[in-house]
């Protein structure tokens, strides 16, 4: 009896204590809804509602029952999971009024037999983080009929797409979009995002694409490209689909577009064509750095120097439309890819052809503030630029056996361009006193030819982890041009120079590169990759200037502005990178060295320049993966930067006699160090994503400009090393987003961005030499809000402030606030009518040197009517730039210069258009006429 009383007292004490501490019990029983079978072994988890962290976990007993005890007061989530059954998720609160939370029977429904009258509480996992890949599930987002991939990825957290289709993800540009891991029209991402249907997509992957060798060895070589991979559903890989669109508007604006895609099995064929004069110059026409450069004599990453096709206005036009001028464009392309022989062989080929012509005017005003000296420069330019280009690329890959693979890439391009530019410039002092003027006309015809071939062999050896790869590359680039320079230049009331010349340039570059990589596992956790590379480069640059003789022919060679260079280089590169991988940790560290033997012959002046140097490229990285949805990475890389040939021995040009560059043979290399860090995390149940990234770089012994400006406004540029100070750059980005259920399931995101730089240069005015320190900083933040309601409405908006700081030690500060914003949305009305609109807002406030603010709102809107059950025929009326504020105006203030420019651009117009989406895909929407 005594023991019984003691036990009863102890039980009462424990119960009272538990209640005082707010401890609770959760229990229930899991049952198959259809068969009433008790589900033993079911996973039951209690999570914190605030951050989804695990509080308690158990498994159901043989009779399906479970009980969790000792849970304190608070808000929680109950997650019940069983293989091949839909999850049961419930949000609940425990307080002093509830001692036991009894769910009773929890009915779980098989994934294959979900009943219509059963409500499953919970969220679909919208994002998964697998290694370095973030994967988005389209089924967790809203997909309208005939919507495109672009409409889908606009809903992803951390993504932005501008009006031209440019994608930014997690604060970084995304230049490459793949389809099922394969390139689709090469480097043209918007051909995928603007044309593939969203309902065809199984998943979307975002990752940093490594080089082919790094992908094979598994060891980071530092070469990364932010990439989207669109994985298609299996039942959407048979059939065809496409789009035809045409429109005509006021002021004779027009646009036409067509695309056809046929998928059958593992084969894909696509064709597209575009024409118009409304600014749609192509779906990503951006080859400015690939098919004919404009940088004169430049240097590659490994230290190699080569001639590019231009060093002045004669070769600078690349055909890209950047919003200035009125364009007329006609572009098209073909694509085919296939896999066969049990996927051992694959082929991917693209052909693109196009022409673009841009005409217009540009007027610029610049003010240079050099302490007590002020110079004002005005420039009026008229231009007419025409370019035609063809490009073909082919990729073939074969898996010779289970250990040996060969991949061949071949591409070639032909480009013809005709340009004409007329400049009228004048420079005055601070009291509007005349200093100099120039009246120049430049015309040029250029033929460019480019060819590249790359062969990669990869071999897995007998020992696990031991590999060998060999990469061979051959490139040939030719550029021939002919043009005329006519200029009249005056200073202080007299003629400085009168030029009437024919310019003829013949430039050829060829390069052969070999790179071998061998990986050796030193232990279960440590691997080393050893690299050796050999590069042989040859270049010829024959630039001729002819004056006009009395007969009217251009047959008198001007030796001062003519030159003929031959360039030969041998580059040997070697290095070793170690890779440590254990558990959640991955570490890379090592370095590469390249020895460059450089020889340049000046044929006209019978001079030879020899230069030998060594480049040093250390690297290291550390990555820790906390979980599948959370990781952190920090990396360092350093590069020796050799002076360019333009800085050492520039080619003399006379297109602008008031801006002259001199060479400096005594230049030494600089060394740049760069540190990068990023953190990302995603919480499934709260749909919360966080991305943080940053970088900091500093350059020792930088190469800086030394500018001397004389009394008539002529500036002479020279480059020197500066040892006393380092140049620095930094970048910070942070973003958090989540779905807020209390606001009607609105997607809400916050972001902050900061970047800046500090650099130096010497400025000499009236024999007074001063060191100038330029600092430019930009701070911005913003909020983005979006919501998609199926068959009703959708909207997306982002806006936020910016603060720019521009400071020069010998000039004036120019600090000021600004605002940027973008909004788009659509409303679906009865009768299959739809109203769509988008607007972009820009505000730049006053600064110390910019005494007036600038504000612009570019607003577009359309009304459309859809037809047929599939809603695939659409008639639209669109007003571009409703407020007529796209006036073609820019202004800026940085360093010692205040700039303002106005230019011809596309303004308000009304366009009527019709578009037809057609398809016949497995399980897809069929076309109706």
UniProtKB/TrEMBL annotation:
Residues 1-20 form the signal peptide. InterPro entries: OMP_b-brl_3. Residues 459-916 form the Outer membrane protein beta-barrel domain. Keywords: Signal. It holds the Pfam family OMP_b-brl_3. This is Outer membrane beta-barrel protein. It comes from Pedobacter riviphilus.
């Amino acid at each position: 009896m005594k023991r019984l009383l003691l036990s009863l007292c102890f039980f009462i004490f424990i119960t009272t204590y538990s209640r005082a501490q707010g401890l609770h019990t959760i229990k229930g029983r899991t049952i198959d809804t259809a068969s009433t079978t008790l589900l033993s072994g079911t996973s039951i988890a209690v999570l914190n509602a605030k951050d989804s962290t695990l509080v308690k976990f158990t498994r159901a007993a043989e009779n399906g029952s479970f009980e969790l005890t000792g849970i304190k007061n608070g808000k929680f989530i109950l997650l019940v999971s069983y293989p091949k059954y839909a999850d049961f998720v419930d949000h609940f609160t425990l307080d002093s009024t509830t001692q036991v939370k009894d769910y009773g029977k929890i009915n779980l429904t098989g994934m294959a037999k979900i009943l219509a009258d059963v409500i499953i509480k919970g969220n679909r996992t919208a994002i998964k983080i697998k290694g370095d890949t973030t994967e988005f599930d389209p089924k967790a987002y809203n997909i309208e009929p005939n919507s495109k991939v672009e409409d889908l990825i606009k809903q992803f957290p951390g993504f932005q797409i501008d009006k031209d289709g440019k994608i930014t993800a997690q604060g970084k540009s995304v230049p490459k979009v793949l389809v099922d891991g394969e390139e689709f029209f090469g480097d043209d991402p918007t051909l995928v995002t603007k044309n593939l249907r969203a309902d065809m997509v199984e998943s979307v992957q975002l990752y940093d694409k490594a080089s082919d060798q790094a992908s094979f060895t598994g060891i980071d070589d530092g070469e990364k490209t932010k990439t989207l991979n669109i994985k298609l559903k299996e039942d959407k890989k048979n059939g065809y689909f496409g789009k035809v669109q045409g429109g005509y508007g006021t002021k004779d604006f027009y646009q036409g577009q067509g695309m056809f895609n046929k998928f059958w099995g593992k084969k894909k064929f696509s064709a597209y064509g575009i024409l118009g004069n409304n600014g749609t110059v192509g779906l990503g026409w951006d080859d400015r750095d690939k098919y004919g450069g404009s940088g004169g004599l430049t240097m590659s990453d490994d230290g190699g120097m080569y001639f590019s096709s231009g060093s002045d206005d004669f070769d600078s036009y690349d055909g890209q439309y950047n919003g200035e001028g009125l364009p007329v464009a006609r572009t098209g392309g073909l694509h085919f890819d296939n896999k066969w022989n049990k996927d051992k062989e694959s082929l991917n080929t693209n052909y693109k052809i196009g022409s673009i012509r841009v005409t217009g005017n540009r007027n610029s005003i610049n003010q240079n503030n050099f302490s007590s000296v002020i110079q004002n420069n005005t420039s009026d330019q008229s231009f007419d630029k025409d370019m035609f280009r063809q490009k073909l690329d082919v990729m073939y890959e074969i898996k010779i056996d289970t250990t040996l693979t060969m991949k061949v890439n071949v591409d070639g391009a032909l480009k013809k361009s005709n340009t004409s530019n007329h400049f009228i410039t004048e420079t005055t002092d601070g009291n509007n006193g005349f200093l100099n003027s120039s009246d120049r006309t430049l015309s040029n015809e250029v033929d460019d030819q480019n060819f590249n071939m790359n062969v990669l062999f990869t071999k897995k050896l007998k020992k696990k982890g031991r590999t060998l790869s060999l990469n061979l590359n051959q490139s040939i680039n030719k550029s021939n041009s002919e043009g005329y320079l006519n200029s009249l230049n005056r200073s202080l009331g007299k003629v400085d120079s009168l030029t009437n010349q024919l310019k003829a340039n013949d430039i050829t570059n060829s390069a052969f590169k070999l790179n071998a990589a061998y990986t050796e596992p030193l232990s279960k956790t440590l691997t080393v990759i050893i690299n050796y590379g050999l590069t042989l480069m040859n270049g010829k640059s024959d630039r001729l200037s002819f004056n006009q003789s009395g007969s009217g022919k251009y047959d008198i060679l001007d030796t001062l502005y003519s030159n003929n260079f031959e360039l030969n280089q041998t580059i040997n590169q070697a290095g070793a990178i170690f890779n440590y991988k254990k558990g959640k940790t991955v570490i890379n560290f090592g370095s590469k060295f390249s020895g460059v033997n450089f020889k340049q012959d000046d044929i006209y002046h019978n001079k030879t320049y020899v230069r030998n140097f060594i480049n040093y490229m250390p690297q290291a990285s550390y990555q820790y993966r906390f979980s599948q949805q959370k990781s952190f990475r920090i990396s360092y890389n350093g590069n020796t930067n050799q002076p360019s040939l333009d800085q050492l021995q520039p080619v003399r040009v006379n297109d602008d006699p008031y801006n002259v560059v001199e060479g400096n043979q005594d230049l030494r290399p600089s060394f740049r160090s760069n540190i990068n860090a990023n953190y990302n995390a995603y919480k499934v149940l709260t749909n919360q994503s966080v991305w943080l990234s940053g970088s900091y770089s500093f350059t020792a012994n930088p190469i800086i400009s030394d500018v001397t400006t004389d009394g008539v406004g002529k500036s002479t540029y020279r480059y020197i090393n500066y040892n006393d100070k380092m140049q620095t750059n930094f970048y910070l980005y942070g973003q958090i987003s989540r779905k807020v259920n209390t606001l009607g399931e609105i997607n809400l995101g916050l972001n902050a961005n900061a970047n800046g730089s500090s650099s130096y240069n010497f400025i000499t005015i009236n024999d007074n030499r001063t060191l100038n320190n330029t600092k430019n900083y930009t701070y911005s933040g913003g909020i983005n809000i979006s919501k998609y309601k199926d068959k009703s409405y959708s909207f997306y908006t982002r806006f936020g402030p910016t603060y720019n700081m521009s400071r020069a030690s010998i000039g004036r500060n120019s600090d000021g606030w600004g605002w940027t914003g973008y909004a788009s949305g659509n409303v679906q009305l009865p009768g299959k009518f739809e109203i769509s609109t988008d607007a972009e807002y820009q505000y730049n406030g006053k600064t110390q040197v910019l005494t007036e603010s600038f504000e612009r709102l570019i607003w577009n809107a359309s009304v459309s009517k859809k037809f047929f059950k599939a809603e695939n025929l659409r008639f639209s009326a669109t007003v571009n730039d409703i407020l007529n504020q796209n006036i073609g105006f820019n202004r800026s203030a940085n360093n010692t210069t205040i700039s303002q420019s106005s230019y011809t651009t596309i303004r308000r117009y009304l366009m009527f258009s019709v578009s037809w989406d057609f398809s016949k895909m497995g399980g897809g929407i069929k076309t109706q006429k």
